[in-house]
Write a structure and sequence with these properties.
Belongs to the isochorismatase family. InterPro entries: Isochorismatase, Isochorismatase-like_dom, Isochorismatase-like_hydrls, Isochorismatase-like_sf. By secondary structure, the chain is an alpha/beta fold. It has a single domain, classed as Rossmann fold, CATH 3.40.50. 37% of the residues lie in helices and 21% in strands. It has a six-stranded parallel β-sheet with strand order 3-2-1-4-5-6. Helix 4 runs parallel beside helix 5. 42% of the residues are buried.
């Protein structure tokens, strides 16, 4: 064990393309090139890439809180074109905030021998935070590329970054730090 994995959280059309049902806004668009760089780094170093994707059923209970979004089989539930998965990438559908809740993520990571995870995506204070928390509860080492995550709420974004770092022990990095080789030693 001890391997690494890059986890891309909810970079889906409904969140990061203008006109999407829960468009995060420009913050979501700004992280796309950062995530593209992280994907390039991971793939060039043979680090597995896992996409965690909201895939709701029509009438999902989450729609009592948020507008209908990322319904399975719709444009809104697809990964944005700029970050499209490639052959060999793993796609894990989810119906709740955490990428671990009710999914095969833990099994996939264990089969890949991954213990060091780096997270990118949206929303920092929702799906990224709860995926990071559940990863830490399972004793994974977790890093977040802080310039590769975004939210529709800047204060909640900042709170989530502090919470992940101070409470969960998540390492916060910039993509430049990860590209410069820290990925080899930390995540």
């Amino acid at each position: 064990m001890g391997g690494k994995a890059l986890i891309v959280v909810d970079m889906l059309n409904d969140f990061v393309v203008e006109g999407g049902a829960l468009y995060v806004g420009e913050a979501g668009r700004r992280v796309i090139p950062v995530i593209a760089r992280a994907l390039e780094k991971a793939r060039s170093h043979k680090i597995p890439v896992i996409y965690i994707c909201d895939r709701h059923l029509p009438g999902d209970r989450e729609f009592e809180m948020f507008p209908t979004h990322c319904v399975a089989g719709t444009w809104g539930g697809e990964v944005c074109a700029e970050l499209a998965p490639r052959e060999g990438d793993v796609i894990i559908p989810k119906r709740r905030y955490s990428g671990f809740y009710g999914t095969d993520l833990d099994l996939a990571l264990r089969e890949l021998g991954a213990e060091d995870l780096v997270l990118v995506g949206v929303c920092t204070n929702i799906c990224v935070l709860y995926t990071a928390a559940d990863a830490r509860m399972r004793n994974y080492k977790v890093s977040v590329l802080k310039d590769g995550v975004a939210s529709f709420d800047e204060k909640a974004h900042e709170f989530a970054l502090r919470e992940m770092e101070k409470t969960l022990g998540v390492q916060l990095l910039l993509v430049d730090e990860w590209e410069a080789g820290n990925a080899d030693s930390c995540c």
